[in-house]
Amino acid sequence: MKPSSFLGPKIKDAQYLASGTAVSQLPGAGLPEIAFAGRSNVGKSSLLNALVGRKGLARTSKSPGRTAKINLFHVRTEAGEMVFGDLPGYGFAARSKEEVKSWGPMIEGYLLKRDSLRALVLLVDVRRGVEEDDDELAEYWAQTGKPLIVVATKIDKLPKAHIKPALDKLRKETHAKIVGFSAETGQGRAELWEAILSSTDPPEAGRRNG
Prior knowledge:
alpha/beta, Rossmann fold, 7-stranded mixed β-sheet, 7 strands, 30% helix, disordered C terminus
């Protein structure tokens, strides 16, 4: 158990690793891997950048749906090494219907066939809650038996008195670990890191010297 003062692990390095539209195009499985998924406008890139303390690691854009491939990032922390898998956003992607439709098999194949995956971090806008696409993805992931971490983003957009009721509602709807998060204020960063680190199996799997 982490102490109450835990603020998240010290980040030693975070670098882009690889991209692909299929598992076969990605580097071989090795380090523990955490997948990040959510609707195109949910703030996934901002969350990834906030987690590792680097503004430009994952690209952010005013046009939702910019990520069209699975992007992998190698993250080195004082607690060990791991890989973050950034999945294409869904829902409001400003791309052709044909291209968006092709993302389904890509995401599903990655979630089921990537042996190094340890958990799925599913991002939802706290103001919108779990939508149909989110629910379908969560159900699909459930067949793996691996942890689901639901992150309610943009909690800084809600009045403080409304945050806890919104998170409680999400907890009842998903029966999953719920983390309230704000990329603007950093709120929830430590709690999310704690959930990520506890999901690696075993916890020392990604540990490396240096």
